[in-house]
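Fold it.
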Amino acid sequence: MAETGRGETGDGHSRDHVASLERGLGVMEILAAHPAGLTLSEMAEKAGLTRAGARRFLLTLVATGYATQNGRRFFLSPRLISLARTWLSGASLWTYAEPFMREVSSTLNESCSAGILSGEDVVYVARVPSRHLLSVALNVGTHLPAYCTSMGRVLLSDLSPEALEIFLAKATIRANTPKTITSRTELAKLIARAREQGYASVDDQLERGLRSVAVPIRDRSGAIVAAINASTQSARFSVEEMERVFLPHLQRAAARIEDFFVAK
């Protein structure tokens, strides 16, 4: 297999782009989608390859241990799982999560952040900023009060009613804006609603003009271990628009991040 020099080819690919590797990875993805296995003819049809080409890719995968053959059918082998687990064993959750958060930020053209609960605060553990400037400086390590943030309310929704009552009784709660909800009774209701609907949104709770919506990240036991949100300026989206547009992307990203715990 020859490799060409740097530059762009006519189809827009870099000359460093190895097309045969791309096709081989495509064959692996097709096998992964068909756990009952595929015949040579079936693979050729699904991958858009000749029978000879499909045969070379499949036999190479068998020879390297990434596929197995039983009669006429080819199957993906468990070696790929071992490869993924080797990577996961050295990667943090947020290393794993960042590409999915970056996809949310790029799609929405808004910032996407992740946080965990620490005492009365949400601590930012990952963040992909947008080009839109916010008056609040948010970085990894930033602490914000949980009661008035979307991620905070999602994280608090995992507390038992008794634990939440204790939390709200002890928490320092103050009005950051004229719209900040400071009633502990009302906050308890909003956190309970977040538990029921699986997300929380806030509007002008931390600062004027700032809106956000957050969804939980759950581990294998179903416990909420973190939250991710997308935030925007009130001039860009109404609360209803934000929930309608942002939520599907956040929920999809959360589901993919939760795969980390399944793979581990």
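Residues 1-6 have pLDDT under 50 and may be disordered.
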